[in-house]
Design brief:
elongated; mainly alpha; 10 helices; single chain
């Protein structure tokens, strides 16, 4: 019996060590920006075998591997939503992950904001409105994003949705005077706008952007009316 218990303990310890090693391998691949390798390594982990103490790591890595490169993520919108759910789940399991999760979500939101701009340029205003509205619903204190959502729904001919968002602007005493945050993409010198100061500041920290600036708009009350 003692031998069997010892063997059982060794097997459990071996599995725990293997999980720790697998998780660390995925982390190393992400840190090295080897995103395809990170996905392959992560998919090899048996979700059902993950111990409770590693579940926060697993949830975080699931979200991170779905997103891949935060600045140039190839994930679809449904995949990004799935990734965000998993990332937030990791914070519920381990509050110490909040800073990393906030940084990753801010980065991928920058990407979504850029995607919305690209949809506008391609005359797909409705798709842009859906993205911007989702970003607003993540942070309903961001009235600048709410205004963008209202304008885009109006431009897309989604008048019922636009009216709903414009009324929400009035209810929140929005004047339309807001600040847009910019930084320069060091790779091509392009001036890029960001959804908020935090997102811009995270981009600066990534070393891929510099020269942060901001500009105030004029009142939009007349336009809203």
């Amino acid at each position: 019996m003692k031998f069997n218990l010892t063997l059982c303990f060794l097997l459990v310890a071996s599995l725990a060590f293997a999980q720790k090693r697998e998780i660390r391998d995925v982390e190393k691949a992400l840190e090295s920006r080897k995103y395809d390798e990170a996905v392959t390594l992560f998919q090899a982990i048996d979700k059902n075998a993950v111990e409770d103490k590693y579940k926060a790591d697993y949830a975080y890595l699931k979200g991170a591997t779905i997103i891949g490169s935060p600045e140039n993520s190839k994930a679809t919108l449904p995949q990004i939503k799935e990734a965000k759910v998993s990332l937030r789940e990791s914070v519920k399991l381990d509050a110490d992950k909040k800073e990393d999760v906030d940084a990753l979500i801010a980065s991928v939101n920058n990407r979504l904001f850029k995607m919305a701009q690209d949809f506008v340029k391609a005359n797909d205003t409705k798709q842009a409105a859906i993205i911007i509205d989702d970003l607003y619903l993540e942070d309903t204190s961001n009235l600048e994003m709410l205004n963008n959502s209202a304008k885009l729904f109006y431009g897309a001919g989604e008048f019922s949705k636009a009216k709903e968002r414009y009324e929400e602007l009035f209810d929140k005493n929005f004047t339309g005077v807001y600040t847009t945050y910019y930084a320069i993409n060091k790779a091509n010198g392009e001036k890029i706008s960001f959804p908020n100061a935090k997102a811009r500041d995270y981009a600066i920290l990534s070393k891929e952007f510099n020269t942060p600036t901001m500009e105030d708009s004029s009142s939009a009350v007349g336009d809203i009316v």
